[in-house]
Design brief:
221 residues; two-stranded antiparallel ribbon
């Protein structure tokens, strides 16, 4: 597993890399990538940290694990590579943005432009075996990402945390709600969205209103 971390995250991540669980996780991931098709490609496993610096961090979106279809995952939660058909959850995210902000539905599902503006697009589990959702859960990734969420909550202030669905809501216990702005809704997956738990949450305009109130640049969604 290639572990090359952007400088701004080193203080947070290096401590985790030195713990025994991370050595076991690394061994597991190496074997999985050697013996199976896994996503994202190894150089993109830590893309969430590569594209969003800790200094610029404004918004945290928490996903569960990467897309497990061919050529979909690019290391950022809910994001796909350029030219790849948008998965259902991403379609619903873009539909809500269109309604909420009056923007056109975008051609590309690549969310790197969000990350570069300070949106941490963090999956709780950073790798997955092809066509096997959740196959790399409970191997140590969640220990790492839970620690990251708690540390950025402790070190930063006035971040916006977007918690979509039951899995993300469980991370609330890691976040200091007195220091940060929390927005909660159903998951953008069709199962949740079609029951009325996603559409109309206005999370994108609400995020920008909060950032503006703290004299921070708004996100160009």
């Amino acid at each position: 597993m290639q572990v090359k971390i952007a400088d701004s995250w080193k203080n947070i991540l290096q401590l985790e890399f030195e713990k025994p669980y991370f050595g076991e996780l690394t061994s597991f991931v190496k074997l999985e990538y050697q013996n199976n098709s896994c996503y994202p490609k190894e150089s993109n496993i830590f893309a969430a940290f590569d594209f969003c610096s800790l200094e610029d961090l404004k918004v945290v979106i928490i996903g569960q694990d990467p897309y497990h279809g061919e050529n979909q995952a690019n290391g950022l939660c809910f994001s796909v590579k350029d030219g790849i058909t948008h998965p259902p959850s991403l379609k619903n995210i873009f539909k809500e943005i269109s309604t909420d902000l009056g923007k056109e539905y975008p051609q590309s599902g690549n969310l790197e432009k969000w990350a570069k503006q300070g949106v941490l697009l963090l999956n709780a589990t950073l790798t997955v075996r092809a066509h096997e959702a959740g196959s790399h859960q409970k191997q140590g990734w969640e220990t790492l990402t839970d620690s990251v969420i708690k540390q950025i909550s402790d070190e930063k202030e006035n971040l916006v945390f977007l918690l979509w669905g039951g899995f993300a809501k469980k991370k609330l216990k890691l976040i200091d709600t007195n220091k940060h702005h929390i927005l909660v809704s159903g998951h953008p997956s069709p199962l949740s969205a079609n029951r009325g738990y996603w559409f109309g949450n206005e999370h994108f305009s609400k995020t920008n209103l909060f950032l503006k109130s703290k004299n921070k640049n708004e996100i160009d969604w």
